[in-house]
């Protein structure tokens, strides 16, 4: 379960755009205060950290004057420390969060963009602050870590905390599977060498190579299972709330099993046929039939799962 790629973040953002905008609007409406323009750096930091205790996805705070010039240094939250508190005096009048805020009295939220500070996808929410006489005092801007905000909305923040431990456990299991596959490969190689020796030595009976094929097939199946586990649970990001991710994982695991069982059934047929044990061929045929039924069941699962997800997405879009 790796970190969300930018593609995954954008995809989830499109699904939860309205809810995210509502959340950020309520946060900044309650947080923004004209008194912030009179506070020093330490006071701003303390105020931001108190906000982050409830909303840990807020990464940065800064203040702009009426002309879009930054009048405070960047204030990082306690969860997203920046290497230096910079930004004071920078002209941000050409930035979307300033232009949008100056055009309305409400909270505005930008589209996602790549943060120059943290190199992560983020968005900015801002609000124009006016004085009693109606003149513009400035603009308050909050930078939001988009991936963390989406995890917060989905209630996934606590699972992300334990994710490194999950990765260690899955990596240990995968390592064990790879060791077993390597052991079977070595045994298969040893059996193959014995067959080669019996072929080159005179007056020796040539061994039937079914043992070698069985060892190599098992090694292939176990290696493929370990590879699938490594990709699905360690290297790739998997959104457990999205049905397509779960369906992809189940499909890959069942496919590995189907391939391994099919090969074993064919080997049984060849072995029984060559050894004159035709009465046992029916057992292998039953295994092939069971494999075919498993393949049909997998196809039905994938089809119904995709239709169910399409219906859910349709309902979400309508609401």
TrEMBL record:
The chain crosses the membrane at residues 168-190, 250-274, 280-304. CDD domains: PDC1_HK_sensor. Keywords: Cell membrane, Membrane, Transmembrane, Transmembrane helix. One of its GO terms (cellular component) is plasma membrane. It is a multi-pass membrane protein. Residues 37-147 form the Cache domain. InterPro entries: dCache_1 (IPR033479), Sensor-like_sf (IPR029151). It is found in: Cell membrane. This is Cache domain protein. The lineage of its organism: Bacteria, Pseudomonadati, Pseudomonadota, Gammaproteobacteria, Methylococcales.
């Amino acid at each position: 379960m790796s970190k969300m790629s930018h593609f995954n973040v954008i995809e989830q953002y499109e699904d939860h755009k309205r809810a995210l905008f509502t959340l950020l609007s309520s946060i900044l409406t309650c947080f923004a205060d004209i008194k912030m323009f009179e506070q020093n750096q330490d006071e701003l930091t303390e105020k931001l950290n108190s906000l982050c205790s409830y909303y840990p996805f807020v990464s940065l705070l800064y203040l702009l004057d009426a002309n879009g010039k930054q009048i405070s240094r960047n204030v990082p939250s306690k969860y997203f420390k920046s290497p230096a508190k910079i930004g004071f005096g920078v002209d941000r009048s050409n930035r979307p969060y300033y232009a949008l805020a100056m055009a309305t009295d409400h909270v505005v939220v930008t589209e996602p963009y790549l943060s120059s500070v943290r190199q992560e996808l983020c968005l900015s929410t801002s609000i124009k602050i006016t004085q009693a006489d109606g003149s513009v005092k400035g603009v308050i801007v909050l930078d939001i870590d988009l991936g963390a905000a989406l995890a917060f909305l989905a209630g996934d923040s606590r699972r992300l905390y334990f994710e490194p431990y999950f990765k260690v456990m899955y990596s240990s299991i995968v390592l064990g599977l790879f060791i077993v596959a390597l052991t079977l490969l070595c045994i298969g190689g040893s059996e193959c060498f014995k067959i080669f020796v019996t072929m080159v030595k005179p007056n020796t009976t040539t061994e039937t190579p079914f043992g070698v094929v069985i060892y190599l097939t098992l090694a292939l199946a176990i290696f493929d299972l370990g590879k699938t586990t490594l990709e699905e649970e360690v290297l790739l990001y998997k959104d457990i709330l999205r049905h397509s991710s779960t369906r992809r994982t189940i499909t890959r695991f069942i496919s590995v099993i189907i391939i391994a069982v099919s090969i074993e059934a064919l080997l049984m047929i060849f072995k029984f046929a060559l050894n004159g044990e035709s009465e046992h061929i029916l057992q292998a045929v039953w295994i092939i039939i069971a494999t075919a039924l498993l393949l049909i069941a997998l196809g039905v699962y994938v089809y119904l799962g995709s239709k169910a997800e399409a219906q859910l997405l349709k309902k979400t879009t309508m609401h």
